[in-house]
């Protein structure tokens, strides 16, 4: 899919445990590139999305996360990109994943202040009651239909 831009500093704080936490005397205010890569790896795994050969690299100077691995569906690929991109400290995601069964890409939408899933649904589908389609397309990233925030990027299925 390529390179995706996100708004740095407004995403959710990554509280997932790091995949391989090295022993450190004191945690700095800003995570190191390796710590951030480990946290992103742990976050992706915590979602339970099927991916093989997963690896994550993070460049702290450019706030770029690079994701490699193979997924079964385009939807899983997009969810992983969004899961990483909607985290604080990530400004770009370089998607180097492959998809076993290629499918058309979804549209992406950046949430604005005052948006609701119903309002977004009305804009894309002409029907506010189709909001559940957007909610389901973004699970497990969203736990609740009201759990969206300005700057967050969502998948909008066809």
Rounded to the nearest angstrom, the radius of gyration is 16 Å
The number of domains: 2
Coarse structural class: alpha+beta
Number of strands: 6
Q: Order of strands in the sheet with the most strands?
A: 1-4-3-2
What is the chain-wise order of helices and strands?
Answer: EHEEHEEHHE
- For the terminal residues, how far apart are their CA atoms? 17 Å
Average pLDDT confidence is 86
- The helix count comes to 4
Q: Low-confidence stretches at least 5 residues in length (pLDDT < 50)?
A: 21-25
Largest sheet: 4 strands, mixed
Approximate helicity band: 25-40%
Bulk shape? globular
Kindly estimate the percentage of residues that lie in beta strands according to DSSP.
15-25%
Please sum up the structure shown.
Residues 13-33 are annotated as: Disordered. The chain is α+β, with helices and mostly antiparallel strands and 158 residues long.
Please supply descriptive tags for the structure shown above.
single chain; 158 residues; alpha+beta; Membrane-bound Lytic Murein Transglycosylase D, Chain A; 2 domains; four-stranded mixed β-sheet; two-stranded antiparallel ribbon; 4 helices; 6 strands
Report on the structure:
The protein is an alpha+beta fold and 158 residues long. It has two domains: 2-21 and 30-99, no CATH class; 107-156, LysM domain (Membrane-bound Lytic Murein Transglycosylase D, Chain A). Helix content is 27%, strand content 23%. The protein is built from four helices and six strands. The strands form two sheets. Strands 1-4-3-2 form a four-stranded mixed sheet. A two-stranded antiparallel ribbon has the order 5-6. A hairpin with a 4-residue loop joins strand 2 (51-59) and strand 3 (64-71). The chain is globular. Mean pLDDT is 86; it is low at 21-25. Residues 13-33 are annotated as: Disordered. It is found in: Cytoplasm. Residues 107-156 form the LysM domain. Keywords: Cytoplasm. One of its GO terms (cellular component) is cytoplasm.
């Amino acid at each position: 899919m390529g390179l995706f831009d996100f708004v740095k500093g407004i995403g959710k704080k990554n509280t997932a445990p790091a995949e391989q936490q090295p022993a450190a005397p004191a945690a700095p205010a800003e995570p190191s590139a390796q710590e951030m890569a480990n946290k992103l790896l742990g976050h992706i795994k915590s979602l339970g999305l099927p991916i093989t050969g997963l690896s994550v690299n993070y460049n702290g100077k450019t706030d770029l996360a690079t994701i490699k691995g193979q997924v079964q569906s385009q939807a899983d690929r997009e969810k992983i990109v969004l899961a990483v991109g909607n985290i604080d400290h990530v400004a770009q995601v370089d998607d180097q994943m492959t998809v076993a069964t290629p499918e058309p890409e979804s549209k992406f939408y950046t949430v604005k202040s005052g948006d609701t899933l119903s309002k977004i649904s009305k804009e894309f589908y002409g029907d506010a009651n189709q909001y559940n389609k957007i909610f389901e397309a973004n699970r497990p990233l969203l736990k609740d239909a009201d759990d969206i925030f300005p700057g967050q990027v969502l998948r909008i299925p066809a």
